[in-house]
Write a structure and sequence with these properties.
Length: 349
Amino acid sequence: MAILSPRAATAQDVDFAGQTVELVIPFSQGGGSDVWARFHAPLLARHLPGQPSIVVRNEPGSGGTRGSNAFAEDASADGLSLLGTSGSSLFAYLLGDFRVRYDFDDWSVLMASPTGGVVYVAGDLGVASWRDIAALQDHQLVFASQGITSLDLVPMLAFRVLGLDANYVFGYTGRHDGLEAMRLHEVNIDYQTTSAYLQNVAPMVAAGDAVPLFSWGIVDADGSVRRDPTFPDLPTLEELYEHLHGTQPSGPEYDAYRVFASAGFAAQKMLVLPGDTPPAIRETWLQAIRAARSDPEYIARAPAILGAYQSLVGDDAQHLAASVTRIDDATRRFVLEWLADEYSIRLTE
């Protein structure tokens, strides 16, 4: 399928007219990654030369590794195959999960979208707001997880830091499944990333069926944590811990939480092409992304759907990806030993 001419090509030579672009999302429909992808797809199609169709293909399984592996093995370098990564696929990579057959260094990062997330509990637990967090220490909490190495590692560490009695049901294929489990009263604590929370959980909160506890917050350039601007009325974990204990959190559990919370949300969703994609095609996609971000529809709708965050594009996104795809040996060792000791889960062969 010829998109470029045989001569030295530039972005102006690229034309996707009549083509179909496949955007792989390695998670189930309805979750944050799916909402993010389906919001961006028509806007990107509008600004690509030839206005191709962009089809979102959900390929869930194994905490995001199944679809990511398939993309690494099969994706074409003609600009018609992209992957939307998430913290789940990143965590498996950072921890050396034996299921991972992809390498972030082999991918060309087009865009890195930070996001937030909110932990919330069922409305029938008897808490009216986050200020009642102490009352939850008398409850057995149940959380629907898509896997140890998924983005769910962040709440698992958070619940441990807070001293909550959380029990985990593994095997769900995406965060939307956790939302459905909450609606069916199968679980009583959950979190959703910002896009899914705004779309699906906020109405539950308004109806009294859910109570938000805290957000992951955002990390400034100096490493300090502050409240998420999308949820300015919700505390961070650090604030909630201080509300409970009168001091700031510390120790190996908190250190691990901070590393994975930062890695999982600062560049929580990345749009990538295969690393061997020709420069002209990569530049065409970058031009489309920048144009889409200036589109009046994007400006009008993005805050309500994605939250008050600013994506990075091009080299800035690639540099951010390079920083969050690294982990120090001590933190990796602590998490791996914790998972092995408490859950008999060994991720390395």
